[in-house]
Design brief:
Layout (H helix, E strand, L loop, with lengths): L9 H12 L2 H13 L3 H30 L6 H8 L5 H34 L11 H20 L11 H19 L2 H28 L14 H8 L9 H15 L5 H6 L9 H17 L5 H9 L1 H6 L3 H12 L6 H35 L3 H21 L5 H39 L9 H22 E3 L2 H10 L7 E3 L4 H5 L12 H38 L10
Antiparallel strand pairs: 1-2
Helix pairs in contact: 1-8, 1-12, 1-16, 2-10, 2-12, 3-4, 3-9, 3-10, 3-12, 3-18, 3-19, 4-5, 5-7, 5-16, 5-17, 5-18, 5-22, 6-15, 7-8, 7-16, 7-17, 8-16, 9-13, 10-18, 13-15, 16-17, 18-19
The chain binds phenylalanine (PHE) and sodium ion.
Keywords: Membrane, Transmembrane, Transmembrane helix, Transport
Organism: Tautonia sociabilis
Subcellular location: Membrane
Length: 566
Amino acid sequence: MAKNERWASRVGLVLAMAGNAVGLGNFLRFPAQAAQNGGGAFMIPYLVSLVVMGIPLMWIEWTMGRFGGGQGHHSTPGIFQSMGKSRLWKYAGVLGLLTCLGIASYYLYIESWCLSYSIYSLLGGFQPPEGVSPEDAAAFASGAPSAFFNRITGQQENQIFAISMPGLVMFAICIGINIFILSRGVAGGIEVVAKVAMPLLLLFGVVLAVKGLMNDPVAEEAVKYSPWIGLNYVWEPDLTQLGNPAVWLAAAGQIFFTLSIGMGSIHCYASYLRRKDDVALTGATTAWTNELCEVVLGSALLLPIAVSYLGLEAVQEQSGFGLAFMTLPTLFNNWGQFAPLAGFLWFGLLFLAAITSSLAMGQPVMAFLEDEFKLSRVKASWALMGMILLLAVPVATITQAGVFDDFDFWVGTFALVVFALLEVILFAWVFGMDRGWEELMRGAELKVPRAFYYITKYVTPVFIIVILLAAVFKPSVGWDGFFRSIGAGEGIPSWEWAGDSVIGKLLHKDLQAPHGASPEVATYYQWLRMIRTFDRLALAGLFLFFSVLVAIAWSRKNTQPKGTGA
Ligand code: PHE
Ligand code: NA
């Protein structure tokens, strides 16, 4: 059973891990974050976070995963407990189940949009019908994608609940596909899918990027600017924003999300390795592949194509899903005959990237139920489906309360940072950096530079702590004022809650009715706040639920997982 599960081949493992990391984060979240945070200004904090935090955590998680797997644990409660002496570590590991499930609940929803869109594009859906007047064709071209978006999400202004039958059906199909693949197991399901999906994804991306970068403002009337302006915007280093912690926070958050670190997912995949299999080289390869698919491919698609028609400023103004799901398919219509295929390639690419990642969110929960409760794989997959449905229904039906963004913030950003801090402490300070290094080096096919020993032990935890603090506190004179007064030798100014981040979100500062709003509008906002409070209680409830499961699992067996020392 689960204990004997292994990856079938090295290639399969590498592709499955790449599939885990490469996801919507690369093609949707990265361009949006880069555009909102000043393009080249974003890239320096991004690269620094990659080196001092992303890569070390990637190695830590691979090493921990292989270690725990050797003792029969494939999810973070068991893995953490096998490395730390205190019994509390298994509860810290629960966070790794919570984030995976929480992220899956909204990630799968977007995944289902991608599936709907790619099928619809392939059937020629966004192309104006033959023989209509140019005006009608233009009206169709600009309206079709947004009409489709509203049709599958059911979204409407000022409506709290949005239900769309076609959208929900596609969502259910998508969940079903994931559960089916997971029920086939690690080698028989995940690995097989990754071997097909990853090469296809690359092919789709390269074709689309080449076509997009060939957009020529001289040769075509609709093309107003060179697509390279979009690429240069991200690639041209800009040092002016280095002192802006908001940019640092966004960059570090993106590194977590895109590498799938801080959530128990990498540990799980690595736990299906043998004790002597390499983790140093393959771990680095995962990070490197993801970065290639983000900084090169991810920045060569959405932004350059959109910029060539709309210009940089217009693109910066439209952040988020609108650009990818409404604007881009409209722009593809400029490609005439190639338009349906372009739409299919774009949304197909998103779907393939998404499914190989959503499988990676489901597997830790499956593994937990299989290892600690001896559930069969099929039973575990049914249980997983139940949990996902419970969480996903509010996400898919309540659009206006920002449940979606709220989940993304608490489980997709904040929890990752907390979890990462805990694991780096566990690895470098509790398990011990010397033993940790020895584990990392066992079977290693890459000689990791010794500098990473010190980075992992000192720089990474301090970096994460600073990020956490900056998300909660800010200088009362603002960060500009802070650096100015430090520079002028006036001492450290006083601090206050950073109202626009953690505390502000906690107190619903971003969900207040506008000043002088009518009573109806005020009630509407009150509803939104209530719903949000409710979904946070649901997340907290889930944490408690898993904690109870963890407590039961270990009391029933009446043994702690084998202690430290393999
Ligand atoms: N890294 C994935 C992405 O970039 C997201 C992910 C999160 C994957 C959690 C697995 C687990 O989209
Ligand atoms: Na990614």
